[in-house]
Amino acid sequence: MTPPKNKKTRADEDDEQSMSDEGVGNLFSGGAAAPSNALAGWATPQTTTPAPAAPAAPAAPVAPRPVAVVPAPAREAVEEQPLAVEDADTAKPVGFYVSANVANRFRKLRKQSDLTHTQIVFLAVEAAVEKGIAQVVEDARRAPKFQSKLFAVAPDNTDLRGLGPVQLQYKPTRAQRAVIDRLVTEAGLPDHTKFLAIVLDQYLPGRRDS
Amino acid sequence: MASPFEAPDPSQQQAQIPWAALSHIFMFGNGKGGVGKSSVSANAAGKAARSGLRTLIIDCNAQGNIARELGYKRAEWNDGGAGLLEALRNGTPLQPRQGVRENLDVVMGGPALGDEFGIFFHTLLAKEGPHAYLRLLMCLLPIAHEYQIIILDTPPENPSLQRLALSAARWLIIPVKSDGGAEDGLAQIGLEFSYVKFVSQINPHLALLGVLLFDTGRTYTGIHADVRRQVQKVLGEEAHMFKHLIGHTESVARLVRKRGLLVQELAELRTEGDRTVPGTVEGLAADYEGFTEEMFARALELRKEAAA
Protein backbone atom coordinates (compact mmCIF):
# COMPACT_ATOMS: atom_id res chain seq x y z
CA MET A 1 0.00 0.00 0.00
CA THR A 2 1.41 3.38 -0.95
CA PRO A 3 1.70 5.81 1.98
CA PRO A 4 -0.05 9.18 1.60
CA LYS A 5 2.01 11.84 -0.18
CA ASN A 6 4.65 13.51 2.01
CA LYS A 7 3.89 11.12 4.80
CA LYS A 8 7.03 9.47 6.02
CA THR A 9 6.90 5.78 6.64
CA ARG A 10 8.03 4.28 9.89
CA ALA A 11 11.05 2.93 8.04
CA ASP A 12 12.06 6.45 6.89
CA GLU A 13 11.78 7.84 10.40
CA ASP A 14 13.72 4.92 11.83
CA ASP A 15 16.42 5.45 9.22
CA GLU A 16 16.82 9.11 10.10
CA GLN A 17 16.68 8.33 13.80
CA SER A 18 19.40 5.71 13.54
CA MET A 19 21.58 8.04 11.52
CA SER A 20 21.21 10.79 14.08
CA ASP A 21 21.61 8.63 17.15
CA GLU A 22 24.93 7.26 16.02
CA GLY A 23 27.92 8.81 17.70
CA VAL A 24 29.92 11.34 15.77
CA GLY A 25 32.48 9.71 13.53
CA ASN A 26 36.19 10.14 14.06
CA LEU A 27 37.23 9.38 10.54
CA PHE A 28 39.40 12.26 9.46
CA SER A 29 41.40 13.36 12.44
CA GLY A 30 42.74 11.75 15.55
CA GLY A 31 42.91 15.05 17.38
CA ALA A 32 41.29 15.69 20.75
CA ALA A 33 37.73 16.92 20.87
CA ALA A 34 37.37 20.66 20.65
CA PRO A 35 37.26 22.32 24.06
CA SER A 36 33.87 23.63 25.07
CA ASN A 37 35.34 27.06 25.63
CA ALA A 38 36.40 27.36 21.99
CA LEU A 39 34.14 30.31 21.43
CA ALA A 40 35.21 31.98 24.64
CA GLY A 41 38.65 32.39 23.10
CA TRP A 42 37.18 34.64 20.40
CA ALA A 43 35.81 37.06 22.96
CA THR A 44 39.37 38.22 23.60
CA PRO A 45 40.45 41.02 21.27
CA GLN A 46 42.98 39.80 18.71
CA THR A 47 45.31 42.77 18.97
CA THR A 48 45.50 45.74 21.24
CA THR A 49 44.64 47.97 18.31
CA PRO A 50 41.27 47.68 16.68
CA ALA A 51 41.09 47.94 12.94
CA PRO A 52 41.57 51.57 11.96
CA ALA A 53 39.12 53.46 9.82
CA ALA A 54 39.16 52.34 6.24
CA PRO A 55 41.91 53.87 4.17
CA ALA A 56 40.88 55.66 1.02
CA ALA A 57 39.42 53.20 -1.38
CA PRO A 58 40.24 53.79 -5.05
CA ALA A 59 36.78 55.33 -5.38
CA ALA A 60 36.67 58.33 -3.04
CA PRO A 61 34.40 57.48 -0.10
CA VAL A 62 31.37 59.68 0.31
CA ALA A 63 28.89 60.02 3.14
CA PRO A 64 26.68 56.96 3.14
CA ARG A 65 23.57 57.52 1.12
CA PRO A 66 20.23 56.14 2.12
CA VAL A 67 19.99 52.56 1.06
CA ALA A 68 17.37 52.03 -1.59
CA VAL A 69 15.14 49.23 -0.41
CA VAL A 70 14.70 46.72 -3.15
CA PRO A 71 11.66 44.57 -2.48
CA ALA A 72 12.72 40.95 -2.60
CA PRO A 73 10.86 39.20 -5.38
CA ALA A 74 8.44 36.58 -4.22
CA ARG A 75 10.09 33.20 -4.41
CA GLU A 76 9.14 29.83 -3.12
CA ALA A 77 11.48 28.24 -0.64
CA VAL A 78 13.64 25.96 -2.70
CA GLU A 79 16.63 23.82 -2.01
CA GLU A 80 19.97 25.50 -2.53
CA GLN A 81 20.67 25.23 -6.27
CA PRO A 82 23.79 26.00 -8.28
CA LEU A 83 23.61 29.29 -10.18
CA ALA A 84 22.83 28.93 -13.87
CA VAL A 85 25.88 29.37 -16.05
CA GLU A 86 23.98 29.57 -19.32
CA ASP A 87 23.93 33.38 -19.40
CA ALA A 88 27.61 33.52 -20.38
CA ASP A 89 26.71 31.56 -23.47
CA THR A 90 24.04 34.02 -24.55
CA ALA A 91 26.44 36.81 -25.51
CA LYS A 92 25.68 37.96 -29.03
CA PRO A 93 26.91 40.92 -31.09
CA VAL A 94 24.48 43.81 -31.00
CA GLY A 95 24.80 46.80 -33.31
CA PHE A 96 24.01 50.40 -32.53
CA TYR A 97 24.44 53.61 -34.51
CA VAL A 98 26.49 56.65 -33.61
CA SER A 99 27.82 59.75 -35.27
CA ALA A 100 31.14 59.66 -37.10
CA ASN A 101 32.64 61.79 -34.31
CA VAL A 102 31.59 59.31 -31.63
CA ALA A 103 32.78 56.37 -33.71
CA ASN A 104 36.21 57.94 -34.17
CA ARG A 105 36.55 58.68 -30.49
CA PHE A 106 35.39 55.13 -29.67
CA ARG A 107 38.01 53.55 -31.93
CA LYS A 108 40.71 55.83 -30.58
CA LEU A 109 39.95 54.80 -27.00
CA ARG A 110 39.83 51.17 -28.03
CA LYS A 111 43.34 51.40 -29.47
CA GLN A 112 44.81 53.40 -26.61
CA SER A 113 43.36 51.37 -23.76
CA ASP A 114 43.14 47.85 -25.12
CA LEU A 115 39.60 47.60 -23.76
CA THR A 116 37.06 45.60 -25.71
CA HIS A 117 34.04 47.20 -27.35
CA THR A 118 31.84 45.67 -24.69
CA GLN A 119 33.98 47.00 -21.85
CA ILE A 120 33.91 50.51 -23.27
CA VAL A 121 30.13 50.38 -23.59
CA PHE A 122 29.76 49.15 -19.99
CA LEU A 123 32.09 51.87 -18.71
CA ALA A 124 30.03 54.48 -20.53
CA VAL A 125 26.78 53.06 -19.15
CA GLU A 126 28.20 52.97 -15.64
CA ALA A 127 29.33 56.60 -15.94
CA ALA A 128 25.87 57.58 -17.12
CA VAL A 129 24.24 55.87 -14.15
CA GLU A 130 26.58 57.68 -11.80
CA LYS A 131 25.83 61.02 -13.42
CA GLY A 132 22.12 60.37 -13.48
CA ILE A 133 20.21 59.08 -16.48
CA ALA A 134 17.85 62.03 -16.59
CA GLN A 135 20.76 64.47 -16.64
CA VAL A 136 22.49 62.52 -19.38
CA VAL A 137 19.40 62.64 -21.57
CA GLU A 138 18.91 66.33 -20.90
CA ASP A 139 22.53 67.10 -21.79
CA ALA A 140 22.13 65.17 -25.02
CA ARG A 141 19.22 67.25 -26.29
CA ARG A 142 19.94 70.01 -28.71
CA ALA A 143 17.99 73.26 -28.44
CA PRO A 144 14.58 72.66 -30.08
CA LYS A 145 13.98 74.30 -33.46
CA PHE A 146 10.51 75.35 -32.40
CA GLN A 147 9.81 76.86 -29.07
CA SER A 148 6.57 78.24 -27.78
CA LYS A 149 5.42 79.85 -24.58
CA LEU A 150 1.86 78.87 -25.19
CA PHE A 151 2.07 75.40 -26.64
CA ALA A 152 3.88 72.50 -25.04
CA VAL A 153 6.66 71.16 -27.23
CA ALA A 154 7.28 67.44 -27.02
CA PRO A 155 10.94 66.52 -26.57
CA ASP A 156 12.58 65.40 -29.77
CA ASN A 157 14.16 62.00 -29.32
CA THR A 158 15.48 61.96 -32.89
CA ASP A 159 17.83 64.89 -32.49
CA LEU A 160 20.23 63.79 -29.76
CA ARG A 161 23.96 64.37 -29.59
CA GLY A 162 25.80 61.19 -30.42
CA LEU A 163 23.36 59.73 -32.91
CA GLY A 164 24.50 59.06 -36.46
CA PRO A 165 24.91 56.56 -39.29
CA VAL A 166 28.02 54.67 -38.20
CA GLN A 167 27.46 51.21 -36.78
CA LEU A 168 29.38 49.93 -33.79
CA GLN A 169 28.91 46.61 -32.07
CA TYR A 170 29.20 45.17 -28.61
CA LYS A 171 28.48 41.74 -27.19
CA PRO A 172 26.24 41.66 -24.12
CA THR A 173 24.83 38.53 -22.56
CA ARG A 174 21.10 38.25 -22.32
CA ALA A 175 21.17 39.34 -18.71
CA GLN A 176 23.40 42.32 -19.42
CA ARG A 177 21.16 43.37 -22.27
CA ALA A 178 18.18 43.24 -19.91
CA VAL A 179 19.92 45.64 -17.54
CA ILE A 180 20.58 48.07 -20.38
CA ASP A 181 17.00 47.75 -21.60
CA ARG A 182 15.81 48.78 -18.15
CA LEU A 183 18.03 51.84 -18.29
CA VAL A 184 16.68 52.68 -21.74
CA THR A 185 13.17 52.60 -20.34
CA GLU A 186 14.23 54.72 -17.40
CA ALA A 187 15.73 57.24 -19.79
CA GLY A 188 12.44 57.48 -21.69
CA LEU A 189 14.15 56.68 -24.96
CA PRO A 190 12.60 54.52 -27.66
CA ASP A 191 15.54 52.16 -28.20
CA HIS A 192 18.96 51.17 -26.97
CA THR A 193 20.76 52.69 -29.98
CA LYS A 194 19.81 56.19 -28.89
CA PHE A 195 20.72 55.39 -25.29
CA LEU A 196 24.16 54.01 -26.12
CA ALA A 197 24.89 56.81 -28.57
CA ILE A 198 24.26 59.55 -26.04
CA VAL A 199 26.08 57.86 -23.14
CA LEU A 200 29.10 57.21 -25.33
CA ASP A 201 29.14 60.80 -26.61
CA GLN A 202 29.27 62.03 -23.04
CA TYR A 203 31.78 59.46 -21.83
CA LEU A 204 34.39 59.16 -24.56
CA PRO A 205 37.44 61.43 -24.44
CA GLY A 206 37.52 64.16 -27.03
CA ARG A 207 35.20 66.83 -28.32
CA ARG A 208 31.54 65.98 -27.96
CA ASP A 209 29.02 66.31 -30.75
CA SER A 210 27.82 69.87 -31.14
CA MET B 1 44.72 50.16 -18.09
CA ALA B 2 45.60 47.57 -15.41
CA SER B 3 45.36 43.92 -16.40
CA PRO B 4 43.07 41.76 -14.27
CA PHE B 5 45.85 39.17 -14.24
CA GLU B 6 48.53 41.49 -12.96
CA ALA B 7 49.48 41.33 -9.28
CA PRO B 8 48.80 44.52 -7.34
CA ASP B 9 51.65 46.41 -5.73
CA PRO B 10 52.05 44.50 -2.43
CA SER B 11 53.62 47.43 -0.63
CA GLN B 12 50.61 49.63 -1.36
CA GLN B 13 48.24 46.91 -0.20
CA GLN B 14 50.12 45.99 2.98
CA ALA B 15 50.43 49.60 4.05
CA GLN B 16 46.66 49.99 4.05
CA ILE B 17 45.22 46.78 5.50
CA PRO B 18 45.57 45.83 9.20
CA TRP B 19 45.72 42.09 8.51
CA ALA B 20 46.64 41.24 12.10
CA ALA B 21 43.27 42.47 13.27
CA LEU B 22 41.27 40.47 10.74
CA SER B 23 41.69 36.87 11.87
CA HIS B 24 38.03 36.66 12.91
CA ILE B 25 36.66 36.50 9.36
CA PHE B 26 35.44 33.12 8.15
CA MET B 27 34.25 32.25 4.66
CA PHE B 28 32.18 29.28 3.55
CA GLY B 29 32.77 28.49 -0.10
CA ASN B 30 32.59 25.75 -2.69
CA GLY B 31 32.37 25.79 -6.46
CA LYS B 32 29.42 23.44 -6.25
CA GLY B 33 25.97 24.45 -5.16
CA GLY B 34 23.69 22.69 -2.72
CA VAL B 35 26.45 21.56 -0.37
CA GLY B 36 25.34 23.43 2.72
CA LYS B 37 27.33 26.65 2.59
CA SER B 38 24.41 28.84 3.61
CA SER B 39 22.99 26.39 6.14
CA VAL B 40 26.31 25.96 7.90
CA SER B 41 27.16 29.69 7.66
CA ALA B 42 23.88 30.66 9.29
CA ASN B 43 24.04 28.03 12.02
CA ALA B 44 27.68 28.79 12.82
CA ALA B 45 26.83 32.48 13.05
CA GLY B 46 23.87 31.65 15.24
CA LYS B 47 26.03 29.56 17.53
CA ALA B 48 28.60 32.36 17.88
CA ALA B 49 25.87 34.90 18.59
CA ARG B 50 24.21 32.68 21.18
CA SER B 51 27.55 32.31 22.90
CA GLY B 52 27.56 36.05 23.45
CA LEU B 53 29.89 37.03 20.63
CA ARG B 54 29.03 40.03 18.51
CA THR B 55 28.59 38.35 15.13
CA LEU B 56 28.14 39.57 11.59
CA ILE B 57 27.10 37.42 8.66
CA ILE B 58 27.51 38.77 5.12
CA ASP B 59 25.32 37.16 2.48
CA CYS B 60 27.15 37.34 -0.85
CA ASN B 61 24.52 35.32 -2.70
CA ALA B 62 22.29 36.69 -5.43
CA GLN B 63 19.73 34.19 -4.18
CA GLY B 64 19.79 35.78 -0.74
CA ASN B 65 20.10 32.39 0.91
CA ILE B 66 20.73 33.70 4.42
CA ALA B 67 17.31 35.37 4.32
CA ARG B 68 15.80 31.93 4.04
CA GLU B 69 17.97 30.46 6.78
CA LEU B 70 17.24 33.26 9.25
CA GLY B 71 13.62 33.73 8.26
CA TYR B 72 13.60 37.34 6.99
CA LYS B 73 13.04 36.59 3.31
CA ARG B 74 9.70 38.38 3.23
CA ALA B 75 10.54 41.05 5.77
CA GLU B 76 9.83 44.55 4.51
CA TRP B 77 13.35 45.62 5.44
CA ASN B 78 14.99 42.95 3.30
CA ASP B 79 16.78 45.07 0.71
CA GLY B 80 17.74 42.19 -1.59
CA GLY B 81 21.42 43.09 -1.52
CA ALA B 82 20.91 46.72 -2.55
CA GLY B 83 22.77 48.03 0.49
CA LEU B 84 25.74 45.77 -0.12
CA LEU B 85 25.87 46.71 -3.80
CA GLU B 86 25.62 50.40 -2.95
CA ALA B 87 28.50 50.13 -0.48
CA LEU B 88 30.65 48.23 -2.97
CA ARG B 89 29.84 50.73 -5.71
CA ASN B 90 30.76 53.75 -3.62
CA GLY B 91 33.47 52.22 -1.47
CA THR B 92 31.54 53.18 1.67
CA PRO B 93 31.26 51.22 4.94
CA LEU B 94 28.84 48.34 5.05
CA GLN B 95 25.63 49.06 6.95
CA PRO B 96 24.40 45.80 8.47
CA ARG B 97 20.85 45.16 9.53
CA GLN B 98 21.22 44.94 13.27
CA GLY B 99 19.63 42.52 15.66
CA VAL B 100 18.34 39.85 13.26
CA ARG B 101 19.05 37.64 16.22
CA GLU B 102 20.50 38.72 19.55
CA ASN B 103 24.16 39.58 18.92
CA LEU B 104 23.75 38.82 15.21
CA ASP B 105 23.75 41.42 12.45
CA VAL B 106 23.38 40.73 8.74
CA VAL B 107 24.57 42.33 5.52
CA MET B 108 21.84 41.16 3.19
CA GLY B 109 22.29 39.49 -0.16
CA GLY B 110 19.78 39.10 -2.94
CA PRO B 111 18.99 39.95 -6.56
CA ALA B 112 21.06 43.14 -6.54
CA LEU B 113 24.12 40.89 -6.50
CA GLY B 114 23.09 39.43 -9.83
CA ASP B 115 23.20 41.37 -13.07
CA GLU B 116 23.67 44.83 -11.56
CA PHE B 117 26.63 43.64 -9.56
CA GLY B 118 28.06 41.90 -12.59
CA ILE B 119 28.08 45.03 -14.73
CA PHE B 120 29.39 47.20 -11.91
CA PHE B 121 32.19 44.84 -10.99
CA HIS B 122 33.12 44.24 -14.60
CA THR B 123 33.78 47.95 -15.03
CA LEU B 124 35.52 48.28 -11.67
CA LEU B 125 37.86 45.46 -12.61
CA ALA B 126 38.64 47.15 -15.92
CA LYS B 127 39.45 50.36 -14.05
CA GLU B 128 41.40 49.00 -11.09
CA GLY B 129 42.69 45.59 -12.03
CA PRO B 130 43.09 42.96 -9.26
CA HIS B 131 42.94 45.66 -6.57
CA ALA B 132 39.20 45.66 -7.20
CA TYR B 133 38.95 42.36 -5.32
CA LEU B 134 39.77 44.20 -2.09
CA ARG B 135 36.62 46.32 -2.40
CA LEU B 136 34.53 44.21 -0.02
CA LEU B 137 37.30 44.23 2.57
CA MET B 138 37.63 47.99 2.27
CA CYS B 139 33.92 48.37 2.94
CA LEU B 140 34.13 45.95 5.86
CA LEU B 141 37.19 47.49 7.54
CA PRO B 142 35.44 50.42 9.24
CA ILE B 143 33.08 48.08 11.09
CA ALA B 144 35.19 44.90 11.38
CA HIS B 145 36.38 45.76 14.88
CA GLU B 146 32.75 45.99 16.11
CA TYR B 147 32.40 42.23 15.72
CA GLN B 148 34.13 39.26 17.27
CA ILE B 149 33.11 36.86 14.51
CA ILE B 150 32.41 37.69 10.87
CA ILE B 151 31.09 35.04 8.51
CA LEU B 152 30.87 35.29 4.73
CA ASP B 153 28.48 33.06 2.80
CA THR B 154 29.37 32.87 -0.87
CA PRO B 155 27.73 31.55 -4.04
CA PRO B 156 29.03 28.75 -6.18
CA GLU B 157 30.51 29.35 -9.61
CA ASN B 158 30.78 33.11 -9.26
CA PRO B 159 34.48 33.92 -9.29
CA SER B 160 33.99 37.65 -8.75
CA LEU B 161 32.01 37.28 -5.53
CA GLN B 162 34.18 34.40 -4.38
CA ARG B 163 37.35 36.41 -4.92
CA LEU B 164 35.89 39.42 -3.13
CA ALA B 165 35.13 37.20 -0.15
CA LEU B 166 38.44 35.32 -0.32
CA SER B 167 40.27 38.63 -0.33
CA ALA B 168 38.55 39.58 2.92
CA ALA B 169 38.55 36.26 4.76
CA ARG B 170 41.22 34.72 6.96
CA TRP B 171 39.69 31.25 7.08
CA LEU B 172 38.05 29.23 4.32
CA ILE B 173 35.76 26.34 5.19
CA ILE B 174 34.60 24.12 2.34
CA PRO B 175 31.45 22.08 2.94
CA VAL B 176 31.16 19.04 0.67
CA LYS B 177 28.56 16.37 0.18
CA SER B 178 29.27 12.70 -0.14
CA ASP B 179 26.97 12.09 -3.09
CA GLY B 180 29.74 12.23 -5.66
CA GLY B 181 30.95 15.16 -7.77
CA ALA B 182 32.84 16.84 -4.92
CA GLU B 183 35.98 17.15 -7.00
CA ASP B 184 34.67 19.74 -9.44
CA GLY B 185 33.53 22.10 -6.72
CA LEU B 186 36.73 21.62 -4.74
CA ALA B 187 38.81 22.31 -7.84
CA GLN B 188 36.92 25.50 -8.62
CA ILE B 189 37.22 27.00 -5.15
CA GLY B 190 40.78 25.75 -4.97
CA LEU B 191 41.64 27.71 -8.10
CA GLU B 192 40.12 30.88 -6.70
CA PHE B 193 41.94 30.31 -3.41
CA SER B 194 45.22 29.93 -5.27
CA TYR B 195 44.62 33.05 -7.30
CA VAL B 196 43.89 35.21 -4.27
CA LYS B 197 46.62 33.82 -2.02
CA PHE B 198 49.45 32.79 -4.31
CA VAL B 199 49.05 34.15 -7.81
CA SER B 200 47.99 37.69 -7.12
CA GLN B 201 48.88 37.69 -3.39
CA ILE B 202 45.92 39.93 -2.76
CA ASN B 203 45.35 38.14 0.55
CA PRO B 204 48.51 36.29 1.58
CA HIS B 205 47.06 35.46 5.01
CA LEU B 206 44.16 33.39 3.70
CA ALA B 207 44.16 29.83 5.05
CA LEU B 208 42.10 26.72 4.43
CA LEU B 209 40.62 25.90 7.83
CA GLY B 210 39.15 22.62 6.69
CA VAL B 211 36.62 20.65 4.73
CA LEU B 212 33.28 19.70 6.28
CA LEU B 213 31.22 16.72 5.27
CA PHE B 214 27.61 17.86 5.00
CA ASP B 215 24.29 16.04 4.77
CA THR B 216 25.80 12.59 4.93
CA GLY B 217 24.85 9.26 6.41
CA ARG B 218 26.77 8.76 9.59
CA THR B 219 27.54 5.15 9.11
CA TYR B 220 28.77 5.48 5.54
CA THR B 221 32.43 5.12 6.47
CA GLY B 222 33.48 3.82 3.11
CA ILE B 223 31.97 6.84 1.37
CA HIS B 224 33.55 9.18 3.90
CA ALA B 225 36.96 7.69 3.22
CA ASP B 226 36.34 8.12 -0.48
CA VAL B 227 35.49 11.79 0.01
CA ARG B 228 38.65 12.19 2.04
CA ARG B 229 40.66 10.80 -0.85
CA GLN B 230 38.95 13.20 -3.26
CA VAL B 231 39.71 16.13 -0.98
CA GLN B 232 43.34 15.17 -0.65
CA LYS B 233 43.63 14.58 -4.35
CA VAL B 234 42.35 18.05 -5.18
CA LEU B 235 43.52 20.13 -2.24
CA GLY B 236 46.61 18.22 -1.14
CA GLU B 237 47.50 15.79 1.59
CA GLU B 238 47.62 18.46 4.25
CA ALA B 239 43.99 19.54 3.70
CA HIS B 240 42.18 19.15 7.00
CA MET B 241 38.87 17.28 7.23
CA PHE B 242 36.80 18.30 10.21
CA LYS B 243 36.21 15.49 12.67
CA HIS B 244 32.57 16.44 13.08
CA LEU B 245 30.16 16.12 10.22
CA ILE B 246 26.61 17.28 9.58
CA GLY B 247 24.30 14.29 9.32
CA HIS B 248 21.50 13.72 6.87
CA THR B 249 18.18 14.71 8.37
CA GLU B 250 15.90 15.68 5.55
CA SER B 251 12.75 16.33 7.54
CA VAL B 252 14.53 18.80 9.82
CA ALA B 253 16.33 20.44 6.89
CA ARG B 254 13.00 21.13 5.25
CA LEU B 255 11.38 22.33 8.45
CA VAL B 256 14.09 24.86 9.36
CA ARG B 257 13.69 26.48 5.96
CA LYS B 258 9.94 26.42 6.12
CA ARG B 259 9.95 28.11 9.52
CA GLY B 260 13.01 30.31 8.99
CA LEU B 261 14.67 28.98 12.12
CA LEU B 262 18.15 27.79 12.91
CA VAL B 263 18.56 24.16 13.86
CA GLN B 264 19.23 24.97 17.51
CA GLU B 265 16.10 27.13 17.64
CA LEU B 266 14.04 24.27 16.26
CA ALA B 267 15.58 21.93 18.80
CA GLU B 268 14.56 24.30 21.57
CA LEU B 269 10.97 24.22 20.32
CA ARG B 270 11.09 20.46 20.52
CA THR B 271 12.44 20.65 24.03
CA GLU B 272 9.61 22.99 24.96
CA GLY B 273 7.07 20.45 23.80
CA ASP B 274 6.42 21.16 20.13
CA ARG B 275 5.84 17.68 18.79
CA THR B 276 5.51 18.88 15.21
CA VAL B 277 9.28 19.07 15.31
CA PRO B 278 10.84 15.65 14.66
CA GLY B 279 12.98 14.12 17.34
CA THR B 280 15.83 13.86 14.88
CA VAL B 281 16.40 17.59 15.33
CA GLU B 282 18.40 16.89 18.46
CA GLY B 283 20.97 14.87 16.60
CA LEU B 284 21.33 17.54 13.94
CA ALA B 285 21.64 20.26 16.57
CA ALA B 286 24.40 18.25 18.20
CA ASP B 287 26.14 17.97 14.85
CA TYR B 288 26.16 21.73 14.41
CA GLU B 289 27.26 22.30 17.99
CA GLY B 290 30.14 19.89 17.56
CA PHE B 291 31.24 21.26 14.23
CA THR B 292 31.13 24.94 15.20
CA GLU B 293 33.05 24.24 18.40
CA GLU B 294 35.66 22.38 16.38
CA MET B 295 35.80 25.08 13.71
CA PHE B 296 36.32 27.97 16.12
CA ALA B 297 38.75 25.98 18.26
CA ARG B 298 40.87 25.05 15.26
CA ALA B 299 40.97 28.65 14.04
CA LEU B 300 41.94 29.83 17.50
CA GLU B 301 44.73 27.27 17.67
CA LEU B 302 46.08 28.18 14.24
CA ARG B 303 45.86 31.87 15.07
CA LYS B 304 47.93 31.32 18.21
CA GLU B 305 50.48 29.29 16.24
CA ALA B 306 50.78 32.05 13.68
CA ALA B 307 51.27 34.65 16.39
CA ALA B 308 53.92 32.60 18.20
Please tell me about this protein's structure.
The complex is a heterodimer of chains A (210) and B (308). In chain A, 36% of the residues lie in helices and 5% in strands. Chain A contains six helices and two strands. In chain A, strands 1-2 form a two-stranded antiparallel sheet. The N and C termini of chain A lie far apart (81 Å). With 308 residues, chain B is an alpha/beta fold. Chain B has a single domain (10-307), classed as 3-Layer(aba) Sandwich (Rossmann fold), CATH 3.40.50. Chain B is built from twelve helices and eight strands. An eight-stranded mixed beta sheet of chain B has the order 3-4-2-5-1-6-7-8, sandwiched between helices. Chain B is globular, with a radius of gyration of 19 Å. Mean pLDDT of chain B is 89; it is low at 1-7. Chains A and B meet through helix 1, helix 3 and helix 5 of A and helix 2, helix 3, helix 4, helix 5 and helix 6 of B. Chain A: Residues 43-59 have a biased composition (Low complexity). Chain A: Residues 1-59 are annotated as: Disordered. Chain B: This is AAA family ATPase. Chain B: Residues 25-197 form the AAA domain.
Question: How would you summarize what this structure contains?
Answer:
The complex is a heterodimer of chains A (210) and B (308). Chain A is 36% helix and 5% strand.
Features:
heterodimer; A: 210 residues; mainly alpha; 36% helix; 5% strand; B: 308 residues; alpha/beta; Rossmann fold; eight-stranded mixed beta sheet; 48% helix; globular; disordered N terminus; P-loop_NTPase (chain B); AAA_dom (chain B); DNA_Partitioning_ATPase (chain B); AAA family ATPase (chain B)
